[in-house]
Amino acid sequence: MSLEGSFSKLTINDSTAPATALKALVFKSKTKSGAKPIVVVGLQETKTPANIIASATESKEPRLAKNEYFAQYFKIDDATKFNLSHLENSESEFFVVVDSSISALSEETIFSTNDDTIKFTKKSLEQYINSLSKADVKVIDFSKIPEASPITKTKKDPAATPAKKDSSSVDSKLIGVTVKKADDFSAWYQQILTKGEMLDFYDVSGCYILRPASYAIWEQIQRWFDAKIKKLGVQNTYFPMFVSSKVLEREKDHIEGFAPEVAWVTKAGKSDLEEPIAIRPTSETVMYPYFAKWVQSHRDLPLKLNQWNNVVRWEFKHPQPFIRTREFLWQEGHTVFPNAEDAQEEVLQILDFYADVYKELLAVPVVKGKKTEKEKFAGAVFTTTCEGYIPQTGRGIQGATSHYLGQNFSKMFNLSVESPLGKDHPKLFAYQNSWGLSTRSIGVMVMIHSDDKGLVVPPRVSQFQTVIVPVGMTNKTSAEEKNKILDTAAIIDRRLKAEDIRSTADFRENYTPGWKFANWELKGVPLRIEVGPRDVKENQVTVVRRNDGKKTTVSLDKLEEEIPKLLEEMHWDLYNAAKEKFDSHRVIVDEWKDFVPALNGNNVVLSPWCGVEECEEEIKTASAKKNDGENFEEDDKAPSMGAKSLCIPFEQPELKEGAKCVKCGEKAINYTMFGRSY
Amino acid sequence: MSLEGSFSKLTINDSTAPATALKALVFKSKTKSGAKPIVVVGLQETKTPANIIASATESKEPRLAKNEYFAQYFKIDDATKFNLSHLENSESEFFVVVDSSISALSEETIFSTNDDTIKFTKKSLEQYINSLSKADVKVIDFSKIPEASPITKTKKDPAATPAKKDSSSVDSKLIGVTVKKADDFSAWYQQILTKGEMLDFYDVSGCYILRPASYAIWEQIQRWFDAKIKKLGVQNTYFPMFVSSKVLEREKDHIEGFAPEVAWVTKAGKSDLEEPIAIRPTSETVMYPYFAKWVQSHRDLPLKLNQWNNVVRWEFKHPQPFIRTREFLWQEGHTVFPNAEDAQEEVLQILDFYADVYKELLAVPVVKGKKTEKEKFAGAVFTTTCEGYIPQTGRGIQGATSHYLGQNFSKMFNLSVESPLGKDHPKLFAYQNSWGLSTRSIGVMVMIHSDDKGLVVPPRVSQFQTVIVPVGMTNKTSAEEKNKILDTAAIIDRRLKAEDIRSTADFRENYTPGWKFANWELKGVPLRIEVGPRDVKENQVTVVRRNDGKKTTVSLDKLEEEIPKLLEEMHWDLYNAAKEKFDSHRVIVDEWKDFVPALNGNNVVLSPWCGVEECEEEIKTASAKKNDGENFEEDDKAPSMGAKSLCIPFEQPELKEGAKCVKCGEKAINYTMFGRSY
Question: Is the dihedral of CA B166, B169, B173, B177 positive or negative?
Answer without folding.
Answer: positive
